[in-house]
Each structure stands twice: as structure tokens, then as C-alpha cells.
């Protein structure tokens, strides 16, 4: 596992690895909070996004397929897809200095300060880890502490991506969990209490 000086990114990557490792053999076709995408497609999207961040930073190869149009078919193992993508992103961000004011990212606004760029990649990994975990009935790894650390990046990046990467922000129901994780998910257009439909 590649680690960086960016502890937030390392935590988010670990959360995504754990979620993917916990998918049961018969869980790859399960529905997820991402409408129209099953667990396999969310994995493909999440891995592709990390490769896209790495490619923008290094000029190296990006994802083999459009992360926003995942095929739903894995050519190899889930870890064989995910691990190289996370390693590439971690290695790329290891070269980003904390005081760099112009770091390239693959989505609007395309150039942001270092902490926001790292937060964007971490946000992507952690939220898709949540998608996979809840789809497979496992405890979500998106803790309130991790969500609070991700929120500054979400505040900068969510609005330009509404309707594309994120849905409209939701209002938490009275009496619902209103911790940092629930607030972040709702802000990004996800229902924090989402559960897979009954079979």
C-alpha cells in the first residue's frame, strides 16, 4: 500500500479498500445509492476517478473507460482494479506540496489549492466507500470525524458539479441522524439512511 504525507487521503483510501474487500461473492450486482449503478459499477467509477486524479497530476495514463459510464464488467479481480488506482493516486499526491496554490484536478474548477485537491480525491474515495458498504449491508466507514475533515473540500467543489457528480442537496428529516457524516451525505445529494431495497 502506498502512503503519502496526506493523512486524509490515506484514510479515505483505506476506507474504500475495506469496503471493497467486504463485498461478498454474490454482492457485486446489488443496487447502490448511486441510481442505475450496482456495486461493480461504483467500484469501476471510484477506481477510475482515482486514476483520473493521478493522470491530471502526472500526465500519466488515465482510466481505461469513462468513470461516468462504467461497463459493469470486471476484467480481473476487484482488488486488481482498485489497488493500482489507489497506488497511482497516492504516489501522485505524494509529490504535491501543502503550500501549492494551483493543483490540477480532473473536474471543475480544474485547479485548486493543495488541501482542496487532496480533499477532493479523498472525498470521492470515502463517499463511494460508503455507497459500497451500505449496498452490501456492512457498517459504513464514513465516520463523523472523517466526514468533518472532508467537508471543506465538499463545500468548495459540490456546487459546480451539481447534476453531474452530485445531486441536489437534501434536508435531513427532523429526528434523523444529524452527525457530520449524515450532513455531508445529504449535502452531496445522498440519503444518509439509504438501505438496499428488499429482495
From TrEMBL:
Pfam families: MDMPI_N. This is Mycothiol-dependent maleylpyruvate isomerase metal-binding domain-containing protein. It comes from the Bacteria. Signal peptide: none annotated. InterPro entries: CHP03086, DinB/YfiT-like, Maleyloyr_isom, MDMPI_metal-binding. NCBIfam families: maleylpyruvate isomerase family mycothiol-dependent enzyme, TIGR03086 family metal-binding protein. Residues 9-133 form the Mycothiol-dependent maleylpyruvate isomerase metal-binding domain.
Amino acid at each position: 500500500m502506498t502512503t503519502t504525507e496526506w493523512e486524509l487521503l490515506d484514510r479515505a483510501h483505506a476506507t474504500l479498500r475495506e469496503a471493497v474487500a467486504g463485498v461478498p461473492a454474490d454482492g457485486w450486482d446489488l443496487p447502490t445509492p448511486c441510481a442505475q449503478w450496482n456495486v461493480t459499477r461504483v467500484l469501476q467509477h471510484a477506481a477510475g476517478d482515482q486514476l483520473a486524479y493521478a493522470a491530471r497530476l502526472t500526465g500519466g495514463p488515465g482510466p481505461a473507460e469513462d468513470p461516468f459510464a462504467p461497463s459493469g464488467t470486471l476484467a480481473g479481480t476487484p482488488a486488481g482494479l482498485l489497488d493500482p488506482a489507489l497506488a497511482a493516486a497516492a504516489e501522485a499526491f505524494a509529490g504535491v506540496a501543502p503550500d501549492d496554490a494551483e493543483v490540477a484536478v480532473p473536474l471543475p474548477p480544474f485547479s485548486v489549492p493543495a488541501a482542496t485537491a487532496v480533499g477532493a480525491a479523498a472525498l470521492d474515495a470515502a463517499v463511494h466507500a460508503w455507497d459500497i458498504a451500505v449496498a452490501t449491508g456492512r457498517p459504513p466507514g464514513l465516520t463523523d470525524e472523517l466526514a468533518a475533515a472532508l467537508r471543506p473540500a465538499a463545500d468548495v467543489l459540490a456546487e459546480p458539479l451539481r447534476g453531474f457528480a452530485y445531486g441536489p442537496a437534501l434536508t435531513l428529516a427532523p429526528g434523523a441522524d444529524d452527525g457530520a457524516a449524515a450532513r455531508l451525505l445529504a449535502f452531496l445529494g445522498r440519503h444518509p439512511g439509504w438501505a438496499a431495497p428488499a429482495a
